[in-house]
Amino acid sequence: MKHHFYFRLLFVLLVSLSVNSHAQEKPFWNDIQKFKHQDSVSMPAKNKVVFVGSSSFTRWNELETVFKDYHAINRGFGGSTLEQANEYINELVFAYKPKQVVIYSGENDIATGTSAEQTYNRFVTFYNNLRKGLPKANIVYISMKQSPSRMKFADNVTKANTMIKEYISKQKNAVFIDVNSKMLDSNGAPRPELFVEDMLHMKPEGYAIWIKEITPYLKK
User: Fold this and answer.
1) Any signal peptide, and if so, which residues (predicted)?
2) Residue 174 domain-assigned?
3) I need a surface site. Which of 8, 156, 183, 190 has the fewest CB within 10 A?
């Protein structure tokens, strides 16, 4: 009997160590587990609109309220990249079988040293995987914004945006939304008044521009 108890205890410890090790190895593992827990409590309805991407979505606390008429599901997670969005595509997107996927991702890829070409390739990989799993879904890509704190990456952001826009223009049931140009001043520079102190994340005034540009493309 004792042997059986110790065996079970050892098994539980090994599983716990394995899970913790897995969490440490995979970035944003805990964020994904929080989404899964939320779903276990109240699973969103299928055939709605999923927003997937990085902190510009994560910090948009009013996103689901603003787009409640479209039954928006916010699955932005931390400082994530396109590569990480693709890695968690099952948990972030396919689990909800959405009719539309709205993406904001790529800015962090470039900020961590990924070239415009590599960022473009990561987007294409993500897009193709989305299309395989959701052949009839509408896919929306929101252009990367120029952030005042990341102006040294401006050329790469512009180049990647251009490449992604051209790619999407050749796809069926896909849209590229240019928010970046609407956030620049007459000299083509980012408007600091749209950003919080870190000059990376947006104030409500910045999100107001996004709402105006995104809303006409959302599917009810």
Assistant:
1) 1-23
2) yes
3) 8
Q: Is residue 120 part of a domain?
A: yes
Alpha-carbon distance 63 to 44, whole Å?
A: 15
- Residue 7 lies inside a defined structural domain of this protein: no
DSSP state of 173: T
Backbone CA torsion sign across 126, 127, 128, 132: positive
Helix ranges (H only) for 95-178 are 107-111, 116-133, 154-169
Per-residue pLDDT of the chain (220 residues; tens, 9 = 90+): 445 544 454 444 444 444 444 445 789 999 999 999 999 999 999 999 999 999 999 999 999 999 999 999 999 998 999 999 999 999 999 999 999 999 999 999 999 999 999 999 999 999 999 999 999 999 999 999 999 999 999 999 999 999 999 999 999 999 999 999 999 999 999 999 999 999 999 999 999 999 999 999 999 9
Tell me, yes or no, if the pTM score tops 0.85.
Answer: yes
Per the structure, the complete domain to which residue 115 belongs is given by 41-217
CATH number at residue 81: 3.40.50.1110
Q: Judge whether 135 lies within some domain.
A: yes
